[in-house]
Sequence to fold (223 residues):
Amino acid sequence: MLSKLVQVTAFLLLTFTFIPGTVSLVPGGKGVNKTKPVETNDVILTDPSTNKTSKNESKISSTFPAPKPGNGSHSQCFDWRKKLSASESKKGIVPKIKSSPFAGTGDKRGACGQPYLASQNVVCLWSGSQSKTPMAKDETAGWVTGASPSNCFQEIKVTYNKKTVTGVLAEACPFVSPPETIDLDSGCSGIFVSENMWKELGGKNETTLQFESWDFVKPESAW
Fold:
């Protein structure tokens, strides 16, 4: 009888400890619920001349999930975009700040919940951090955050020196560090790109470039 009781107890412990699909262990952190993607907000800016590669590259998928239809509250920058004039909007979004390249995540996940390589074409848009402009109650921060991933995996086209390259939105950037703050125009128009995308656009050993414009490949899908 005692033996059967021990077996049942062990079975219940195993069952409730290893429920699949509920908890993911993130290196260097505690368990994180898979239904809520992790926002790293620690994008690693890089000097393209170092040509460093991410760790564990073989474990990282070469493709991204398809973007999901937006739902819930619109982003702060979606509402900002609506206020642009028709002529401004037609030209795409002109960055008010210079852009920089960033490295891959290594074995961590980006704000959209998936790791990526510096050799992939990845885009980082504003997370809404350090904003000078308070959000409306029915808005989410910036363009994208781990808690508000409606714009994740959208295709973004970037133009520099009359050359256009497309990447996938998979990361969120604060653009400034505390105590510095950033205005809405600069935050919502800002964009950083991965090392590979930087090179495809014509960047070499520069650490900043002033891109001509960027936009969602499908602006009607932006959220």
Remarks:
- Confidence is low (pLDDT under 50) at residues 1-42, 46-57.
- The first helix runs from residue 2 to 17.
